[in-house]
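stage 2 :: seqdesign
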């Protein structure tokens, strides 16, 4: 279990949201953290892949090849 200290204005917003939705503050806080962590993970992966590309450790795929691979017409 992790305890977080939140600014009063954030606590007020979470309380108001919980009242409007009938869900708990904990549920909303957990959802927000999970979504943000997913975004941070995606960003870290993108930065690693970009760095690998810049160093020549990764290849690119032409857009036309991707479109053909997945059956998308343009």
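stage 2 :: out
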């Amino acid at each position: 279990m992790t305890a977080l200290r939140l600014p009063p204005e954030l606590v007020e917003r979470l309380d108001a949201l919980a009242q409007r939705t009938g869900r708990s503050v904990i549920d909303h806080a957990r959802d927000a953290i999970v979504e943000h962590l997913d975004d941070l993970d995606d960003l870290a992966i993108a930065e690693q892949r970009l760095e690998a590309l810049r160093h020549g450790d990764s290849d690119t795929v032409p857009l036309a090849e991707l479109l053909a691979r997945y059956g998308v017409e343009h």
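stage 3 :: structure notes
- Residues 8-69 form one domain.
- The chain has one domain: 8-69.
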